[in-house]
Structure prediction request, 397 residues.
Amino acid sequence: MESYYGLPKDVVFCKKCVISNQRPSSTIEFRSTSNDKKEVIQLNDGICSACSFAEEKEIIDWDHREDKLKELLARHRRTDGGYDIVVPGSGGKDSVYTSHILKYKYGMNPLTVTWSPHLYTEIGWKNFTNWIHVGGLDNILFTPNGRLHRVLTSLAFKNLLHPFQPFIIGQRLIGPIMAAKYGISLVFYGENQAEYGNKVEENQRPTMDPSFFSSENPLDMKFGGVPVTEIISEYGFSFSDFAPYIPPKLNTLGLNNIEVHYLGYYLKWDPQECYYYSVEHAGFEANSVRTEGSFSKYSSIDDKIDPFHYYTTLIKFGIGRATYDVAQEIRNGKITRDEGVALVHKYDQEFPKKYFKEFLEYVDISEEAFFEIVDRYRSPHLWEKKSSGWALRHTVS
Prediction:
């Protein structure tokens, strides 16, 4: 049966969590774990790379890693009152934890920078302001050209079923670019996303791969699968409108001298513990209701477009928001796999209706067009059309 996006035709679920080998961003590598925890990775035995790394975290010498963190921070710490570190983030639990602990435990003077969400939720804006006013952090809130951002988001949804593409580009670039502008040589993100299933080797280094800084001709870049020149011509923008989205060359803005690190390499990362810390130290609040498509109330709650990012991963890869959240909680020992499977079955395919009207307005399409686009991206090896509607061929058990 045909599979889209180069996905494996055979769907396999991890034996320890609930993630499948259909996960995007990098293929999940299923590996076995030895009884001897010093030998974590062996042959294929149905354990995903994220779960393998979760086991590896239990044998890492975190005291040694923290010593390395202190040495790194000491090299960059300023004594003239200037900012010595940039922490990109939205004011969610992870960026609150990262920035607050770097300032108040490790004595740094961070500048937090935020690439604005598409449409703030009420709780998202409240947590953002609490981050600054309760947590005691300085912040630059960068909001890109709203008309252009809507067009790019709409193109990404229609042509890639990836409405978060423009946001992710800006979010990744804003930290290093702002660091260069303010003469700051150190940038810290929270956890490495490889911890959730990219190639496990990425977790062996503390720094971000700088390859996202591009040396290609910016006019050859594509957003939502459409070349910049075509977007300029079709929608009446200028090339300068794209400045926040274009990765600069490494030799511009002094980016060669900037180090981009992950705090999760140095401190054992636990999302739920980040949440508790953020509540205690910066007034972070969970939502009053659970997030549609999941059981969680405190993760990724700042953007009204966010639920549709996860809904599109469900459509393209058979992996919804509950699957991501459950897998993380299992790896961190918060719930059992059986509990997680039940949560995935209950919530993973729930449609995010709360902000549906606002999403349609934002990307400028009708409800009918929305579902026509969505259905085009359902891979035949994952979905089948029944009299009652679309159904996944494979679910975790």
